[in-house]
Give the backbone structure.
Amino acid sequence: MKTTTSATVLVVDDDDAHRGMLRMMLKSWGYTVVEAADGDEAVEAVRKDSFDAVLTDVRMGRTDGISAMKQILSYNPSLPVILMTAYSSVETAVDALRVGAYDYLIKPLDFDALKDTLKKAMAHARLGVENRELRRQLSEENSSPEILGRSPAITSMLAMIQTVAPTEATVLVTGESGTGKELVARALHAQSLRKDAPLITVNCAALAETLLESELFGHEKGAFTGADRHREGRFKQADKGTLFLDEIGEMPFSVQAKLLRALQQGEIQRVGSDKSEHVDVRVIAATNRDLKKEVEERRFREDLYFRLNVISFEVPPLRQRREDIPLLAAHFLARFSARNRKTIKGFSPQCMDMLLHYDWPGNVRELENAVERAVILCTGDTVLGPELPMTISRLSEQDLSRPAEMPSSLAGLPLEEVERLAIEETLRETGDNKSAAARKLGITRATLHKKLRKYEIDSREDGE
């Protein structure tokens, strides 16, 4: 059965009969075919036009397939090149894999293998394009290479980062665990005038009181048991740069006083020393605690709180920006698919429903872990549902029947996801009346039924 595709394959072979046979076969599969009789013609064709894959013989008269492939990849490194070779040149073809060939096929060709290899090569190339596009979006659109989202809350926060980053203001970042507070700190540093100096991170919850003081300010040799040498602290290491104090709410009260002095006077004093040193450091602090409450209960210094809270960012939990879930999930899917050398095209509609309806107590970090697990366990080209953690995959029918929040912006969502969301929302508005829904969507009732089956959308048989 012929399949329809817009993909174009460049076939390179100096054997007219073999090239003609390949042309007929590829066209029967729905590909558009462009032909070249040798390597020189192939290189020229790639320079002039766009192709989705190149299928080339190795041994040709004027310019062989290996030489042509090297020139093609130097011009377009992402274009998959598949070699056709006889048994006598298999070793050459294997060597070609090391310099960029996608795969090689042995003549006479196994057409099932050819069809499968072309399909995989193009899927691999598309995944590469999607990964590069995601990186471009992160670096260019968001002006932050790691914060991803288009919800109003994230858009507003990114704009605030651009405003605050070039200043010298101390910043307090608040939010639940897993929301990405450290990413905010990194974005602030990356867009600051200090970006060429270090960003130093200290987890205030990970160290005991004496060790935290030494970690921040350094110590003299012999200052305490185990201090067998002089040590510079993190403040000194961050001089002219940024110091990120994570979990600041866990800092012991005694260390808070010394931190306040460093912030107010720009001076530190190593443990065991009576001399002060000047440092030029911008401080960004983060916490998942309510510091106002900590101040009221006398577990956090009020003066330090106000000194830290010159500018504050509250990173919203994922459940309050569900419209970002499809984009975040796609980002993590591309990352972990590439890392695990898999080609996974996306999530099934039921799986995406689960992701949208789950409350994500662990926020973005939990979503990232869930997608990584799903990629590892996925055996096909689509993440279904059982690959997700049981807390997500076992959501009840009642949980999934409540409407998930519709994205406030559809920009960046896959077209099929937009169509599915539109159909579901229209069915809800019409009380599952399919004739009315079809009219509102501008399609026939038969077409609506086809799309319901395609997206596996559950609805009543008789909603008329």
